[in-house]
Amino acid sequence: MRILAGLMMGMFLGSLDQTIVSTSIRTIADDLHGLSVQAWVTTAYLITSTISTPIYGKLGDMWGRKKLFMFAITVFIIGSALCALANSMHTLAAFRAVQGIGAGGLFTLSLAIIGDIVAPRERAKYSGYMMAMFGSSSVLGPVIGGVLAGTTTILGIAGWRWVFLVNVPLGIIALYVVWRTLHLQSTRHHARVDWMGATALI
User: Fold this and answer.
1) Three-state helix/strand/coil letters over 9-73
2) What is d(CA 121, CA 65) in angstroms, rounded to the nearest whole number?
3) Which of 41-55, 62-76, 172-186 has the lowest mean pLDDT?
4) In-domain check, residue 190
5) What is the pLDDT of residue 94?
6) Would you say residue 138 lies in a domain?
7) Number of folded domains in the chain?
8) What average pLDDT does the segment 20-37 reach?
9) Is the confidence at residue 105, as pLDDT, over 70?
C-alpha cells in the first residue's frame, strides 16, 4: 500500500526529530554561541508536539484527517527549513517549537488514518508496523545526528544544518504520496475543542 509508505514516512520524520538533535546539540550550540540555552532546542519540540497531539486527534474527527495530516506535515517541513536557517539558539528553539506543532499531527493522525483505511482485524498488524517505525527512527536519530553534525560541510552547508534539512525532501515526498493516494470520505462534525484543557498541558 503506497499510502502506508507515506504515513510511515511521516511517523519516521516526527519521531526521528525527537532524538536526532541529542548528539548534534553541542556542535550546534558551539556554532551559534548558545550553550546556556541548548536544552530548549530539544524541550521546545517535545512541549509543542505533546500538546498538539491530542488537539490534532479532535480536529481530525471534526474536519477530516487527510487535510489535517497534510497541514501537519507542511508545518513540519516549514519548521525544519527554518531550523536549518537559524542564526541563534533562541531562534532555533522557536523554530523547533514550530516543528513540534507539525510533528504532533504526524504522530496521532498516522495511527488514526490506519484505523480508517484498514479492516478491524488487520489494524493491530498495521499499527505494529507504525510503532516499529517509531521505535527504529528514535534509535537511528542519534546516529544520523552525530554523523551529520560531525561532517564539516555538505554541499557547502554546515553539516549540523542537514540535521533539519534532511526532513524537507522526505517530508515533501510523504506529503505528495498522501495527497495522491489517501481517499477518505469527507466529514465535518461540529464539536467543541477543550482549548483550556489543552493549555493546561503546558
Assistant:
1) HHHHHHHHHHHCCCCCHHHHHHHHCCHHHHHHHHHHHHHHHHHHHHHHHHHHHHHCHHHHHHHHH
2) 21
3) 172-186
4) no
5) 96
6) yes
7) 1
8) 90
9) yes
Q: Take residue 2 and report the three cell numbers written for it.
A: 503506497
**Model pLDDT for residues 138-193, shown as the tens digit of each residue:** 899 999 999 999 998 999 999 999 999 999 999 999 999 999 988 876 655 565 66
Other Cβ atoms within 10 Å of 74 Cβ, number: 15
CATH no. for residue 134?
1.20.1250.20
Amino acid at 124: A
196, three cell numbers: 483550556
C-alpha cell at 5: 509508505
* Residues of the domain holding 27: 2-183
CA–CA dist 51, 100 (Å, integer): 9
Nine cell digits for residue 42? 530539544
The verdict on residue 196 lying in a domain is: no
Q: What are the CA-CA distances from residue 23 to residues 11, 97, 139, 165 (Å)?
A: 21, 19, 12, 16
Distance, in Å, from the CA atom of 134 to the CA atom of 129, rounded to the nearest integer, reads 9
Q: What would the DSSP string read from start to end of 86-124? A: --SHHHHHHHHHHHHHHHHHHHHHHHHHHHHHS-HHHHH
Give me the pLDDT at residue 147, please: 94
